[in-house]
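Q: Here's a chain of 261 amino acids. Please give me its 3D structure as tokens.
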Amino acid sequence: MLLSASAPRLLLAAGLLASVPREAATEALPTGQFVEGITCRSDTTQTYTLYLPSSYQPEREWPALLVFDPRGRSLRAATLFRDAAESYGWIVVSSNDTRSDGPCEPNARALRALWPEVHERYAVDAERIYAAGFSGGVLVAWDLAQFAKPPSLAGIIGAGGRPAPEIPVETIAFAHFGTAGHLDFNDAAMKELDAIVEKRAAPRARREAPRGVLPQQPQADRCPGGGGREARCAALLRDDRAGLGRPHGDRSRAGETLRAA
């Protein structure tokens, strides 16, 4: 299981607990388009796909989303958030190096490189950094939330995944949006997690696909909440200041379900 061995988790903690300097770089990078294959400064073996909104200027701070795909398909995963990131002014950083169903160390190494990267290289709002993942990528996001200091994540978007058993979710103090299909083996664990988060009074929302596991393709008729994956991503990025989930009566549209109260 991802990062379940104690040694890699200790290495991850040691790499992330260190203070991160607040220095936004002045390098000129394209905005309004994906830039693939950017190398992390602290570890040149780690690369990612970047999206800076067209309005990006280093003089102000911007919310950021770290994306962890279980097969390192950085562009494919980041594309789900492209329209929302452009509309609402978000930085998207999607790793090429996260994996599922394999050794722990590649994910720990990716996190150790990406966490300082977003703080040192881009003008991020340290209180509005979120992580999103699918399947094993969700476990990566939870590990980051557990060890990244200071500060930790503002929230997690988890699709078809759950935290490792040793993660103390009872201490959760950030927003959480979770989704899983009725036949997904993660579904029961997601329901348990939702109940824990509800007791903690943390902002949260849980969605279930109408049938089967979470679909791989953005088919609107099979996506939880309706409206397609991109629509749900847009709602999540738009409403981060209100927390990922302030449910309203009409649950058929993600934008209405998750909008700021």
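Q: Can you summarize the key feature?
A: The chain has eight helices and eight strands.
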